[in-house]
Specification:
This protein is of the alpha+beta class and 275 residues long. It has helices spanning 11-16, 20-35, 54-63, 139-157, 191-202, 208-213; strands spanning 2-7, 39-43, 67-72, 85-90, 96-98, 114-118, 123-128, 162-167, 205-207, 222-223, 240-245, 252-257, 265-266, 269-273.
Length: 275
């Protein structure tokens, strides 16, 4: 089976926007569509609470005509048009969708950050982890989220194996970003966030990219939009992941980033497994 995960940074803009960046986003959607994955996970969709309008829904169907989809958006007391996630899966698959609340600090459970699909042999979870924020103003809440999320995945894992993916908003090791020496107090690379990810893996999960590629350096999934040369210079971070339950590691065939061309921000991730 093949899985793809991508922080799209506004599904609306990607589907129907007219800016040069929207055109680049559609190029990435073309790349994703050609992979013909079984499940596609999107984060930071930024959809309104009611979802897509007819034009957007048709544009999505044009890219992915063979897929069903489920989604969850932010709702009060969270900000409107913020965060949000979506999962697309091939028509005919036996899927039950859940939109869990993990008793995270308010209003994180209302920000549309989690979708879990239950399939006959495994759970598929997608997550858009909260950022610690400018000045680390949300770091304490982020630490609570990390503990609650790890406990949630561990609970699923007791029932059946888990495949989890998304924007985890943390570079786990120094080799996961280009300039670790300058970023130890930056959101996404604090000791606290890195420890949270270490604890998540210790709960019984494997970073599939490292499982396949070992300690390879210079491979990233995100490049800052605000720095025009970040992608040209490969000054990036690896903050997007596919994780799997330890016991299904032998089934991993591929785990890699897909080419997102000149578009900065996040690149899509691909995981292929032989069940």
């Amino acid at each position: 089976m093949k899985f793809i995960s991508w922080n799209i940074d506004s599904l609306n803009a990607a589907l129907t926007g007219t800016s040069p960046r929207a055109a680049l986003s559609r190029d990435v959607l073309d790349v994703i569509a050609r992979e013909d994955a079984d499940i596609i996970a999107l984060q930071e969709t930024k959809l309104p609470e009611k979802g897509m309008n007819k034009k957007q829904a048709q544009a999505l169907a044009d890219f992915f005509p063979e897929y069903e989809f489920v989604w969850v958006s932010s709702k009060e007391p969270a900000r409107k048009g913020y965060a949000g996630t979506m999962a697309l899966y091939k028509k005919g698959m036996e899927v039950k969708a859940d939109y869990p609340a993990i008793r995270a600090p308010e209003p994180m459970d209302c920000e549309g950050r989690l979708i879990t699909l239950e399939l006959p042999d495994f759970f598929f979870n997608l997550v858009y982890t909260p950022n610690a924020g400018d000045g680390l103003k949300r770091l304490e809440e982020r630490q609570v989220w990390d503990r609650k999320y790890a406990a949630y995945l561990k609970k699923l894992d007791r029932i059946k194996p888990v495949i989890s993916c998304g924007d985890y908003n943390v570079a786990h090791k120094e080799i996961d970003l280009a300039h670790p020496e300058n970023n130890h107090m930056s959101p996404g690379f604090t000791d606290e966030e890195r420890e949270g990810f270490t604890n998540l893996l210790a709960a019984g999960f494997t970073d599939t990219f490292r499982h396949i590629h070992g300690e390879v350096k210079g491979v990233y999934s995100w490049w800052a939009q605000r720095v025009k040369t970040s992608k040209i210079n490969n000054s990036g971070w690896r903050i997007d992941y596919f994780l799997v339950s330890d016991r299904i590691c032998p089934s991993i065939l591929r785990s890699e980033m897909l080419d997102s061309g000149p578009r900065q921000d996040h690149a899509p991730l691909l995981l292929e497994m032989d069940f």
